[in-house]
Automatic annotation (TrEMBL):
It catalyses: Endonucleolytic cleavage at apurinic or apyrimidinic sites to products with a 5'-phosphate. InterPro entries: Endonuclease-V. DNA repair enzyme involved in the repair of deaminated bases. Selectively cleaves double-stranded DNA at the second phosphodiester bond 3' to a deoxyinosine leaving behind the intact lesion on the nicked DNA. The record marks Y83 as: Interaction with target DNA. Keywords: Cytoplasm, DNA damage, DNA repair, Endonuclease, Hydrolase, Magnesium, Metal-binding, Nuclease. HAMAP family: Endonuclease_5. Its cofactor is Mg(2+). It is found in: Cytoplasm. It comes from the Bacteria. This is Endonuclease V. The gene is nfi. One of its GO terms (molecular function) is single-stranded RNA binding. Its EC number is 3.1.21.7. Mg(2+) binds at D46, D113.
Length: 228
């Protein structure tokens, strides 16, 4: 996700407490399990902030395993919350849900530009969306948010575990292209690590990012031109 991080006063402590409690409640609903049935359609989603007060969210849908393009949608809305570290999903999820409503083809699984359970409270944007939609989700992030890992080998397809300080598996660190910085892949909801890793690798087409999130990012830039 492309975050806008404005300077400003500290967030309201009461708001932080309320959102943290809600995040804890949502975390208790997460199920880490293989997605049911055949995965025929995969969505990718991304959000960006064209202005400090505006969030633009994109969904694209591809067919598996060919990655043939099915559709693309977007939604623009007001930013509902100030920037609060660890609670960014509440800033993006409402607008992502509005974009999702516009899809004609419902995906079997969603690849989210961001984290799943590889989050300090195990509730990144991929987990948040999965619980809200009750759809299998996983996260593919460009930067580590929490956890420790050893750098994977420099060749494409190299993988190392991402764990917390107690050794609990949070995700996997995947080299998606030779000699580029790795990706951080973690399940969100109704998805397991094996599926998240398999689909990430299956969706690589010579770029650092897998096609669902790469194309969502691409179309976010294109759609920005329409709203200027």
């Amino acid at each position: 996700m492309a975050y806008f991080r404005p300077p400003g006063p500290a967030p309201d402590p009461q708001l932080v407490r309320e959102l943290t409690q809600l995040q804890d409640q949502m975390r208790n609903q997460i199920r880490l399990e293989p997605p049911p049935g055949e995965l025929r359609y995969i969505a990718g989603c991304d959000s960006s902030f064209p202005t400090p007060d505006t969030v633009l969210s994109v969904f694209i849908v591809l067919e598996l395993p060919s990655l043939g393009f099915i559709e693309k949608v977007y939604h623009v809305g007001p930013v509902p919350l100030p920037y609060i570290p660890g609670l960014l999903s509440f800033r993006e999820a409402p607008n992502l849900l509005r974009a999702y409503e516009k899809l004609r083809r419902q995906p079997d699984i969603i690849m989210v530009d961001g984290h799943g359970i590889a989050h300090p409270r195990r509730m990144g944007i991929a987990a948040h969306l999965g619980v809200e939609l009750d759809v299998p989700t996983f996260g593919v992030a460009k930067q580590r948010l929490t956890g420790v890992y050893e750098e994977p080998a420099l060749t494409k397809g190299s993988i190392t575990p991402l764990t917390d300080k107690n050794g609990e598996l949070l995700g996997q660190v995947i080299r998606s292209k030779d000699k580029v910085k790795p990706l951080f892949v973690s399940p969100g909801h109704r998805c397991d690590q094996a599926t998240a890793t398999r689909l990430t690798l299956a969706c690589l087409r010579g770029y650092k990012l897998p096609e669902p999130t790469r194309l969502a990012d691409h179309w976010a830039e294109e759609f920005k031109k329409e709203i200027r």
